[in-house]
Write a structure and sequence with these properties.
The structure holds 2 protein chains of 2 kinds. Chain A is of the alpha+beta class. Helices cover about 50% and strands about 25% of the residues of chain A. In chain A, the strands form 3 sheets. Chain A has a 5-stranded antiparallel β-sheet with strand order 2-1-5-4-3. In chain A, helix 5 (about 120-195) packs antiparallel against helix 6 and helix 6 packs across helix 9. Chain A is rod-shaped and about 145 Å long. Chain B is globular and about 50 Å long. In chain B, about 50% of the residues are buried. Classes of the chains: A alpha+beta, B alpha/beta.
């Protein structure tokens, strides 16, 4: 149904079509362009005729025309949705979407082109493209970071492995060396004991006593080294618990320590009686290490005090000394191997395994070791062991 | 590596010599369709797609390797070794004319002659050289390429889709023309239009037929004349044609000029 009984003329419809319509020769020469197209480019129709369509494009568009859509028009006879930048009379760039067909008529071959503005859509699509580029750049960054991370991890793993190998080698060396040292040391001790049985002069007795003490100290160090090595080699420290009287065991230990540390005064205070499940040799080793520590670092004008407290479920054995307190910064690492509370006198100690061994032994018994140290009340190491009471 | 699928190689025709057709930037081997029938009876014909173009194996496209024309030239020599018989005449359009020259330099003597269709050794103007473009023009091209990639959702998409005027054209055929991956096309555009092969081409002794369109934006007359000047054994043949693809828009004139040039290698009529 039409209002006036018919449509407007074809020319009128062509000129006013809601898109640019252009007819060119195969080579691109413009033969006719409608008003809509002329208006879009701000050009008079007459000024377009005999120009080539591609001359209306930006340089990029012209190359694209030559390399892409001109061959396609030739091969497939049509193109669709090509986006092109055209130059407005005033120099502005007008982005348009092109559909084109190649038509053969009796009058010749013509390219019929339809163009519509796509300004807003083009902007939107460019934003999309920019966003995609950003996303790709970020992805590339993330990928690069991931690669770097993996590489760093691999290097770290390598370094860790070679450190592990070095450490294992060192620990095995320590274990083998300390084990092999025990035999000659035992021979020296036995020889000294045999000599002690015969008649001696004072000087010989002093020298024999000195040999005996030195052997014991060396044995202690070897025991520590062996324990350390076996902890580090993953074997742990073995303890052989059996019911033993706590007070008596400590008393016996202390009397031996008094001989070993003749210049120190060592006191023993005890509360509570009874037997608990414990490895007495290991208890002796713990107390020995702590007392050796006190003698080495404490103020020996005051006594070293050992307190044994057996009450309820727990036995607490504490070793206290007066003197300079342990710096707070050192406390967290104090129980680690090769750590010393001070560097002031490198000659007084062994390799720094004593406290490490004590902690390992306490933990092997299911207990723990704690420390309090300050200038006023001095330094106290407390071993707390579960009192698995022997029935 | 599978050459036939990597480069989508096709072999046709028969003769004592082989014509190897290498397409230019923006399209694929289908652009030779107007020229091939003319030579079918007298030559062995090898056509292929450059890696990254047409139906080549996109997985073979390595951004670093294909960052210069050298790798394309190596590919061409591999194709010649595998598929050519007898003397080889390389027919290269646009950038492929330079790929052919590089392949010739890589293996001197293997290519007997070149037919260069719209060649240019350097697109950008230099001090005493007119290539026809400023560097900004090439960036404008990259921009146009970009804006035509929009809406291409995945890696593979036809450059220009659809054929509204030709419903008979099957979907497969339509999309087979000039397929390309946007990122590859962008890099190839850079490699093509920012390359300078003037030193490679200078003094190349192999016989060369230059098919120069009389009106070509991409390879203007001055460039054809320059090439004739630096190629000692070359013949410049003007083809009355507007545009960069005389083998498509003026195939008869092209094949006529080629017939004369190829006379020494053609099998009996």
């Amino acid at each position: 149904m039409t209002a006036g009984g018919g449509l407007p003329g074809v020319d009128e419809l062509y000129e006013g079509a809601p898109c640019g319509l252009v007819i060119t020769s195969e080579a691109g020469t413009i033969l006719r362009a409608n008003q809509t197209f002329c208006d879009a480019l701000g050009r008079a129709p007459a000024s377009l005729l005999q120009h080539r369509f591609q001359d209306l494009l930006t340089m990029g568009g012209r190359i694209y025309h030559q390399t892409h859509w001109a061959p396609l028009m030739k091969m497939q006879g049509a193109v669709a949705e090509v986006k092109l930048d055209l130059l407005h009379q005033d120099g502005r760039i007008i982005t348009m979407l092109l559909n084109g067909v190649r038509r053969e008529h009796p009058e010749g071959v013509f390219y019929q082109l339809a163009l519509s503005g796509t300004h807003e859509r083009d902007r939107y699509e460019r934003e999309l493209l920019a966003a995609r580029r950003r996303a790709e750049a970020l992805l590339a960054q993330a990928t690069a970071a991931e690669v770097a991370l993996q590489q760093a991890k691999a290097e770290l793993a390598d370094a860790y492995q070679s450190a592990q190998r070095r450490a294992a080698f060192a620990e095995q060396t320590v274990a083998i060396a300390s084990h092999d040292l025990k035999n000659p040391l035992t021979a020296i001790k036995m020889a000294a004991q045999l000599l002690a049985q015969s008649e001696q002069r004072d000087r010989e007795r002093r020298l024999l006593g000195s040999i005996g003490h030195s052997c014991e100290r060396a044995e202690g160090m070897i025991a520590d080294l062996l324990d350390f090595a076996s902890v580090r080699l993953g074997q742990g420290i073995t303890i052989r618990s059996r019911p033993a009287d706590l007070k008596n065991t400590v008393e016996q230990t202390i009397s031996e320590l008094r001989l070993a540390f003749a210049h120190a005064r060592i006191r023993h205070l005890s509360r509570g009686y009874g037997q608990i499940d414990i490895d007495p040799d290991r208890l002796q080793q713990m107390i020995g290490n702590l007392v050796a520590n006190s003698v080495a670092y404490g103020d020996m004008t005051h006594p070293v005090t050992i307190t044994t407290d057996l009450a309820g479920d727990a036995a607490v054995i504490a070793v206290h000394n007066h003197g300079t307190c342990i710096p707070e910064a050192l406390i967290p690492s104090l129980f680690e191997p090769m750590t010393r509370a001070t560097d002031q006198d490198a000659t007084v100690r062994s390799v720094g395994l004593g406290l490490f061994i004590v902690r390992e032994l306490a933990e092997a018994h299911g207990g723990e070791i704690t420390l309090s140290s300050n200038t006023v009340s001095g330094t106290t190491f407390s071993i707390r062991l579960p009192a698995g009471r022997a029935s | 590596m599978n050459l036939p699928s990597r480069n989508n190689v096709h072999v046709a025709g028969s003769g004592n010599a082989t014509l190897v057709f290498s397409h230019g930037f923006g399209c694929d081997q289908s652009m030779w369709q107007f020229l091939l029938p003319h030579f079918q009876g007298r030559f062995r014909l090898v056509t292929y797609d450059l890696v990254g173009a047409g139906r080549s194996d996109l997985a073979a496209y390595d951004r670093e390797q294909y960052d210069s024309l050298c790798r394309y030239a190596e590919d061409l020599n591999e194709i010649i070794t595998a598929f050519a018989e007898g003397p080889v005449i390389l027919v290269g359009h646009s950038v492929s004319a330079m790929i052919g020259a590089l392949a010739d330099r890589q293996q001197p003597g293997r290519i007997a002659a070149h037919v260069m269709v719209g060649p240019s050794p350097c697109y950008i103007d230099a001090d005493d050289y007119t290539g026809g473009f400023k560097e900004a023009d090439i960036h404008a091209l990259l921009d146009t390429l970009d804006s035509n990639y929009l809406g291409w959702s995945s890696a593979m998409a036809p450059v220009i889709m659809g054929a509204p005027g030709q419903p008979a054209l099957s979907e497969e055929l339509t999309n087979s023309f000039c397929r390309t991956d946007p990122d590859i096309a962008r890099q190839f555009a850079r490699v093509t239009f920012l390359s300078d092969n003037r030193q490679d081409i200078h003094g190349l002794p192999t016989p060369v037929l230059i098919l120069q369109s009389t009106d070509d934006l991409i390879a203007p007359m001055a460039v054809g004349e320059y090439l004739q000047g630096v190629l000692p054994n070359s013949r410049l043949c003007l083809i009355e044609n507007i545009g960069h693809c005389p083998h498509m828009s003026a195939p008869a004139a092209c094949s006529e000029a080629m017939d004369a040039f190829l006379q020494p290698w053609a099998a009996g009529q």
